Amino acid sequence: MGSPPKRSHYDAVVIGCGMAGLAAAIRLAMFDRSVLVVESHNAPGGLNSFYALQGRKFDVGLHAVTNFVPPGARGTPLGKLLRQLRIPREALDLSEQVSSRIAFPGVDLRFRNGFRELAESVAAAFPEEIDGFTRLRDHVAAYDPFDAGLEVRSTRSVLQAFIRSPLLTDMILCPLLYYGSARENDIDFDQFVILWRSIFEEGFGRPLEGVRVVIRALLDRARATGVERRMKCGVRHLHSDGSRITAVELEDGYTVTADRIISTAGAPETALLCGETAAPEAGPRLSFVETITVFDGQPKNFGAEETIIFFNAAPTFAYERPADPVDLRSGVICFPNNYEYGAERQLEEGFFRVTALANYAYWKGLDEATYRSEKEAWYRRMQSAATAFLPGFDWAGVEAKRRFVDMFTPRTVEKFTRHLDGAVYGSPVKTRDGTTAFGNLFLAGTDQGFLGITGAMLSGISMANRHVLAGG
Amino acid sequence: MTKEECKQVVLDIISDIAPDESLDGLKHDVRLRDQLDLDSMDFLDIVMELRKQHGIEVPEEDYPQLASLDSCAEYLTPKFNAVSA
Ligand SMILES: Cc1cc2nc3c(=O)[nH]c(=O)nc-3n(C[C@H](O)[C@H](O)[C@H](O)COP(=O)(O)OP(=O)(O)OC[C@H]3O[C@@H](n4cnc5c(N)ncnc54)[C@H](O)[C@@H]3O)c2cc1C
Question: Domains in chain A, start-ordered, CATH in brackets?
Fold first, then answer.
């Protein structure tokens, strides 16, 4: 059974040692609450964890830390979260992106951190839309996405008042949906506002050594504040008396009690832990495949200087669970090498990552041998779909220098994070206030509604503040 | 504890939770929020630190009493003196 937890009763148990769970636990431990974090996987990080294969270090997900702002910028989400966790900015070692692009048939929009390039790019490609685009920017700036009194609205319906071109509408939505929509073909307008700011107004950054730098900073704080962590130990069952959670039963056989429980496992996943049946959802959950090609050399020496490229080849942009195993019509390309790491600082090998929407049921149903051969076949198709949007890129040259390939599917995501259907952004409907059917059980992270790694950390912080610390 | 000492306690807490803020030249009678980049999350931290470091409880309905350094001193000094008494 292993050694027992240090206590039999905690002020709080946090389910999940991803970004949201770690941030919540640190906040509570900072103010002397006894906290136990339980995590089913052996590594911390959740959807944005890391692993090593054949001596190489990989990030599961990290393309970019969003919300990048220069040091000293005031009142921004990145500054808030560092302050709340008391992590010095330098600990994240963020370098900013070079430049990114939204690539649709015949039209490109370019952007860097800060809004200027995007506005110039829209003015050049859609001169008749620039006034509406500017009004949209003002509308987003004035909108308070945290005002709980506002109804949840469809972004597509809001955008109609500002943008006439369906193409421009799709191009604006493409990066924002890929980086944070749990809904098919649309996104809640408050989420749109958060993502617009975090991607277009602020921007992308990355630590040279990837997501492990962020996780290390969180683990250091967790250790310093006295958070107790229990890895490779999932929650098996949350016992209740019908209105409150009375005990947390762990998979290693121990049971603890807690005044409050914060779950980052997801809303239906948490309901299942309580022995309830998960409520039917408003639409399918979205999952992705990601390919990682490692090669000898730097992308820029093969003609790729950009950081992230959001591409779509179809007449209209479809962001939905595809009927095919992988939707080759659109996707996201990332070159993690192409950040401004500074002189003499660079990843030793070249990395080329491609993400696309995928069909969970298809991948889940394959036997082991077919799964492997299908991965190989779809790897090749994804590379050709993506490289079609990289005109100067010497893909044949990269292939000749290729050292390693990895690929993961919705099945991998489910296995390592237990998110139902391998969903990356969770349930299509979010629980903004984090409350559940049980008075002392709260949600944070994915299904509370703040997405991405910055969003997940802010979610953990705000749910811990609101439901534990402010409650006395 | 005097009111001036009480203000210093509050300033020390602010410099812990917001090390990036310059506290020089703060006006004592003007709202802290108007002079510093502090939001409601930061005020929660001031309250939490008062409890943790000094055993002082500030109920949520009294948070407005912490608006300026002067109002902090008015509100908190008697609490400090009650705790140490
Ligand atoms: C391929 C990919 C690329 C991505 N790229 C980016 C990016 O570039 N930038 C960005 O900002 N975001 C990115 N994201 C999204 C980002 O990773 C997530 O939004 C964020 O990490 C969610 O954090 P979380 O803490 O809310 O949830 P999770 O990370 O899912 O954490 C939940 C944790 O709970 C654990 N758990 C579940 N059930 C149990 C149980 N019963 N008992 C104990 N533990 C349990 C899980 O194992 C998991 O560790 C990407 C995601 C993926 C998959």
Answer: 9-92+209-282+429-469 (3.50.50.60), 114-199 (no CATH), 287-422 (no CATH)
**Does A181 contact ligand 1 (Cβ within 6 A)?**
no
Pairing of strands A228-230, A35-38: parallel
Among A72, A86, A469, select the one facing B44 at the smallest CB separation: A469
C-alpha A416/C-alpha A422 separation (Å) is 9
CATH number, residue B17: 1.10.1200.10
Asked whether A451 lines ligand 1 (CB < 6 A), one says yes
> Coil, strand, or helix at residue A373?
helix
Supply A93's token pair.
């070692």
pLDDT tens-digit map of A256-278: 999 999 999 999 999 999 999 87
- Residue A23 Cβ contacting ligand 1 at under 6 Å: no
ipTM, interface predicted TM-score of the complex: 0.87
* Bridge partners, A247 (sequence order): A239
CA–CA distance, B56 with A425 (Å, rounded to integer) = 41
Question: A-B interface: how many C-beta pairs under 8 angstroms?
Answer: 31
pTM for this structure?
Answer: 0.95
